[in-house]
Amino acid sequence: MPESCYDEFFLHFNVLDVPCLKIVINKALGFGIILGSVLVKLPQILKLIGAQSAEGLSFQTILLELLAITGTMAYSIANQFPFSSWGEALFLMLQTVVIGFLIQHYGGRTTRGFVFLVVYCVLLALLLSPVTPTSVVTSMQAFNMPAIIVGRLNQAGTNFRNGHTGQLSAISVFLLFAGSLARIFTSIQETGDTLMALTFVISSACNGIIFLQILYYWNSSPKHKKNKKSE
After folding, report:
1. How would you class 221 by CB atoms within 10 Å of its CB: exposed for 0-12, middle for 13-18, buried for 19 or more?
2. Residue 98 above 80 pLDDT?
3. How many angstroms separate the CA atoms of 218 and 212, rounded?
4. How far is CA 224 from the centre of its chain?
5. What string of H, E and C letters represents the secondary structure of the chain?
6. Torsion angle, CA of 200/201/206/210, rounded to 10 degrees?
């Protein structure tokens, strides 16, 4: 909190100072999103492990999502944005990598899953190192928008073709949708970066589509679809 806001709140007892209220709300939202992101994909991971299946999840979608998350994280670090404006990307990245490995593992491709982990870690280390030019990182952030659109539409297409959302977790998808909506406000307030804000607008719209599909296919399941086909 800026010293001027501290004076307004605690010395002048002016708790309705609008500029300072915006800062406090923005910081609270930012750290709230980060705290929520620690567990946002845990329901999805537990659902995969519990079902011992990754049916309905697209590995291509996970790769594109990982590309978008990594781009946002690298771009924020390169521009020295405050951690409260991008910290959830770190935890989402870790959880998305786990989901990517589980998709390969439950698809009978465990070795490929380990290769995926190694290759990603090497590329991430290279991206965050001084060797990578800032222009490359900025280009990655710009590429996030088409990557998010293609990735989410790919998942939406998979859901439509299957007639169900498989092992997608409604809780995880909703939290991603709500988090990306809140990030539009915090990005504008904390970074003033139009590219970051626009990325979260696109992300919110795409996550909203997947969440609506989950609600639409709520009573459908892989088992139910197989039974209908067998009849």
Report:
1. middle
2. yes
3. 10
4. 30
5. CCHHHHHHHHCCCCCCCHHHHHHHHHHHHHHHHHHHHCCCCHHHHHHHHHHCCCCCCCHHHHHHHHHHHHHHHHHHHHCCCCHHHCCHHHHHHHHHHHHHHHHHHHCCCHHHHHHHHHHHHHHHHHHHCCCCCHHHHHHHHHHHHHHHHHHHHHHHHHHHHHCCCCCCCHHHHHHHHHHHHHHHHHHHHHCCCHHHHHHHHHHHHHHHHHHHHHHHCCCCCHHHHHHHHHC
6. 80
Q: How far apart are CA 99 and CA 89, in angstroms?
A: 15
**What average pLDDT does the chain have?**
81
Q: What is the CA radius of gyration of the chain?
A: 20
At position 163, the amino acid (one-letter code) is: G
Q: Amino acid identity of 29?
A: L
| Contact of 43 with 171, CB cutoff 8 Å | yes
Q: Is the pLDDT of residue 141 over 90?
A: no
Tokens of 55: 């049916």
Checking if the pLDDT of 229 tops 60, the result is no
Q: Tokens in use for 69? A: 């998350």
**For the whole model, what pTM was predicted?**
0.69
Say if CB 64 and CB 137 are below 8 A apart: no
Nearest in space to 128 (alpha carbons), one of 164, 162, 90, 96: 90
Tokens of 74: 């690298």
Taking 90 as the threshold, does the pLDDT of residue 102 lie above it?
Answer: yes
C-beta of residue 126 within 8 angstroms of C-beta of residue 132: yes
